[in-house]
Description:
Structural class: mainly alpha
Shape: globular
CATH class: Mainly Alpha
CATH topology: Endonuclease III, domain 1
Distance between the termini: 26 Å
Largest sheet: 2 strands, parallel
Number of domains: 1
CATH superfamily: Hypothetical protein, domain 2
Radius of gyration: 17 Å
Mean pLDDT: 92
Helix content: 40-55%
Amino acid sequence: MHPQQWIEKKIMMTKRCAWANSDELLKKYHDEEWGRPLHDDQKLLEILILEGKSCGLSWKLILKKREYMRKVFDNFNPEILVTYDDAKINALLNDSGIIRSRLKISAVIENAKAYLKIKKRGSFNDFLWEYVDYNPIINEASKIITRSNISDKLSNDLKKLGFKFVGSTIIYSFMQAIGMMNDHETACFCRRSDVFA
């Protein structure tokens, strides 16, 4: 058996978080991204923007539209996003390939502006990960958590800086996505920290 086939077979037999089992797209996202510590500034901005766009919607829908949104939002490059004018916003509002909400489109621009303010002082990665002392928090897997004292604090601080769609529940989900919180289920193969090494 080819090594890649063996790996794929092993993953198929692996236990993962229940929420990821219903769909191949969710499985791939869970196995390759969710909960893995992320430290790239621009990718962190992208995930923050996408988490905001998911407000009131399913994450599966966001994943389906992610590649196209990367294209029309200039790969979430903040230097480009802050230059968007009314004509660009109107064009986006008429694009059925994205989440067509004026508030959420405006939030992309405002979040890019706020991100660039942080970048003047240092890295976005350091700003975020300082809230967990640069180490992922491994939560008790039997408890379903949607917010925490840390997400409350980070949410409030982001709002003060001008970020939009960054309520505590969205921020907790963001923290899970980027690996600040390890909320993988106990039996999930991603629960172990060595998976991320």
